[in-house]
Predict the structure.
Amino acid sequence: MSEPVVFTYPIDGNNFTSAGGASVAVKQNLRALGFPDDVVRRVSIAMYEGEINMVIHAHGGTATVTVGEDEITIVLADRGPGIADVERAMQEGYYTAPDNIRALGFGAGMGLPNMRRYTDEMRIDSVVGTGTTVTMKVRIPEEGA
Amino acid sequence: MKSARQRPSRPANPPDPAAAYRHSVAIDGEKCRGCTHCLAHCPTQAIRVRGGKARINPALCIDCGECIRRCPHQAKKAVFDKLSDLPKEKIHRIALPAPSLYGQFDRLSDVDYVLQGLLELGFDGVYEVAKAAEIVTAYTRRYLARTDIPRPVISSACPTVSRLISLRFPSLCRCIIPILPPIELASRAARIEAAKAHPDWDPASIATVFISPCPAKASYVKNALYGEKSDVDAVLSMSEVYFALLNVIHPGTTPTIQSQTGMIGMGWASTGGESSALLNDRYLAADGIENVIHVLDQMETGDFRTLEFVELNACPAGCVGGAATVENPYLARVRLQALRRYLPVARQYLPRGGAVPKKVRFAKPIEPKPILLAASRLEAMKKMQAIEKILPTLPGLDCGSCGAPTCRAFAQDLVEGTVQMDDCIVRLRESVAAQKSAEITESAPKESQ
Ligand SMILES: Nc1ncnc2c1ncn2[C@@H]1O[C@H](COP(=O)(O)OP(=O)(O)OP(=O)(O)O)[C@@H](O)[C@H]1O
Ligand code: SF4
Ligand SMILES: [Mg+2]
């Protein structure tokens, strides 16, 4: 049993063009570690969605990815406006993104539902006016399973 | 970015990406001055400067030629074949010019002059790769009509891109169209055509010689990238052939040979040509290695699901921008447009519908060969752990003066044991400075306290 590897990335809320960069870095690291494609894919999609949300809706924050032997935990923490009705935000098609962002193809209200779909566990802790922390876990299937 | 289909997980590949890949980009040790210009531009971080000379890690090199373009001392070279290297019995040589060759010449009114020039240079025949490209286009349309294929389909024409995908985007290997690239079909067809035209030739005496815009195609021929040995016998540098052709092209004369390509075949020389020929507007065409990597990253995250076809070329503007071309890629593209202008849309046809025959398909699918940190995940985790520990102690400048492209790459090299901490000159200088100031404070009289 080895200690988990922890990657931390500051997510810059003022730089929309670099949004998504942390998920790409995580993808490369997971691949170098030899994780199966499916795990790499699920983590990078879920993290990408969360990372973009932090930039669009919450002026950035911090992403921490903890890679253990049997699970990968992604924690996305921001000090943005918070989500008033988490249950509603989780519904497909619910969005509050402004039009200029939607014109880029974001803001379909599919981010949070996708994050849930691609992870084994997901939890949102949000306080309006204080910020949001999204915690997601992807379990690693047994080798050969 | 949106929902990508889920697939069963595949076990990681055995870690042998080096597997004796034979490259066509090499360093000239005499000329290399260890200046680190190439480091930051290598898209796979394959280069290190050690002992004052650059070195390329063959396991990571994708033969893109980026370092050849960047080196201010011409110390990176593309390695091609020479006609004199061909086995003695191969006395009948058929030239396979890439369509980008036609864009190299100023004031060329007709492609036929170039083909005639090749005959003047001593080739016994010419088979245009552009002609084979039209056949690939026709098969690609058939392939895209299938409903059971992974989409979007990625072109297999640029070997740099195919190798990049297998190393860095292994999950996308399945999207690469399993149809052989034009160079390969051209070689096979040329051989058959020559044997028919010259029944007196011994088939073993025929050699096909590709005139290449890039070192990547030379590597393609050496490495059985698509599962079996290439049919091409030799690959020559386009720039060498270009200079030889300049002496033998005579615009006043009447060529005896006629080009057999249309607009579509010639279009393959620059980005967008291959995809626009599919007559399907759901495509993306990108070029330049940075852009290519960006697109592949997005594709892996599930973007572009509605696209049918993705054409990616490692070189700026496409093959006209290959590292062995002579002319500026954008000028070459304009010239090709002029040459294409009065050509029929295509000269090679296939009936619509129908299957893609086995003879034009890959012998084996492209294998995912991800670059692993270590053979076992446990070992890899330990290394990654060590890298992450070292990283915050480095200056974070990614300046390259240590001979590694980034601080992270340097940290990895440290963990691998190939460098020492003091090779980071910036850190060394900082610690010397800190030591000095510590000495000064210690030796200074402590009156102020
Ligand atoms: N980190 C966050 N801070 C504040 N609000 C958030 C955050 N993440 C999501 N939300 C809210 O939840 C809504 C739904 O998020 P979701 O990611 O599902 O859709 P979207 O971001 O609007 O569009 P899409 O992800 O499809 O581009 C958002 O419109 C936003 O109002
Ligand atoms: S884009 Fe064309 S010229 Fe450039 S590496 Fe790929 S095949 Fe060669
Ligand atoms: Mg979102």
About this structure: The interface with chain A takes residues 1-4, 6-12, 15, 168, 170-171, 297, 300-302, 368, 370-374, 376-378, 380-382, 384-385, 388 of chain B (CB under 8 Å).
